[in-house]
């Protein structure tokens, strides 16, 4: 897809990867609706974009609420034109461990149903126009697994699966899909998880940062914009994730044994630090 003169919505764009994606899309020539439940953060992102000569609007929105998604699409259409690119970026780590029913409701809403609800709104429009692009910001945890956080692992796996389904089902209708699966990224989310007192949450963060280099949000955004231009599905800002994924698939039992061993190492290290 050509990004120039396109209209994009980016959720969770008040900071971190979402902010970097909004800025990168703007730099590539798109007009961007910056959405976040943190409205001051969204405003700050817009100021960064407009200060660089781009066109952007800020909107407070719950990315998981269908009414808010519809409002974002309406705002984009009224100010910029029909939406061409939807970036489902907003995400949370969720509760540690198994979590309670209420915890699962929250993380499923934000990390998965937000993507489904957005697709239900924008995809029919794109099919009628014969063009559109959906970006699912998942995680390497969606290809591998996340130690310490069942909800995060399951919802990221599901987000990858939903993105695959979209690409298969609507690829012949002119709709492109990219699924972004980074390891550690220097964002407020990762920093908050690393600072958590809960042992399972802390283990989640340590598992990420020890698996590979912690890269910048700008690096993720650059890789994503390149993928949109090339109509490439899988976006791996950490190329080593592909080897990890292949290793997992080649011998599942060996991979699970290795992950259990890795978990024991993390727990032992944390116990000695405590």
Automatic annotation (TrEMBL):
Family: Belongs to the short-chain dehydrogenases/reductases (SDR) family.
A Pfam family it matches: adh_short
Protein name: Dehydrogenase
Alphabetic keyword roster: Oxidoreductase
Alphabetized GO MF terms: oxidoreductase activity, acting on the CH-OH group of donors, NAD or NADP as acceptor
Superkingdom of this protein's organism: Bacteria
């Amino acid at each position: 897809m050509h990004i120039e003169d396109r209209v994009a919505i980016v959720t969770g764009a008040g900071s971190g990867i979402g902010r970097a994606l909004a800025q990168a899309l703007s730099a590539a020539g798109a007009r961007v609706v910056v959405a976040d439940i943190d409205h001051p953060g969204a405003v700050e992102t817009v100021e960064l974009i407009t200060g660089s000569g781009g066109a952007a609007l800020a909107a407070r929105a719950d990315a998981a609420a269908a009414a808010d998604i519809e409002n974002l699409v309406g705002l984009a259409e009224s100010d910029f034109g029909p939406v061409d690119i939807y970036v489902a970026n907003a995400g949370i780590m969720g509760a540690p461990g198994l979590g309670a029913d209420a915890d699962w409701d929250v993380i499923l809403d934000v990390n998965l149903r937000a993507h489904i609800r957005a697709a239900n709104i924008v995809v029919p429009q794109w099919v009628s126009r014969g063009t559109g692009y959906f970006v699912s910001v998942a995680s390497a945890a969606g290809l591998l697994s996340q130690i310490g956080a069942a909800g995060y692992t399951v919802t990221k796996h599901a987000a990858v699966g939903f993105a695959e389904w979209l690409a298969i089902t609507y690829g012949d209708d002119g709709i492109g899909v990219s699924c972004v699966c980074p390891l550690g990224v220097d964002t407020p989310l990762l920093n908050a998880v690393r600072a958590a007192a809960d042992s399972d949450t802390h283990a989640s963060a340590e598992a990420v940062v020890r698996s590979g280099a912690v890269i910048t949000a700008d690096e993720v955004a650059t890789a994503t914009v390149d993928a949109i231009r090339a109509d490439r599905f899988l976006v791996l800002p950490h190329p080593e994730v592909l080897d990890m994924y292949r290793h997992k698939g080649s011998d599942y039992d060996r991979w699970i044994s290795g992950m259990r061993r890795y978990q024991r190492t993390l727990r032992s290290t944390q116990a000695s630090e405590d």
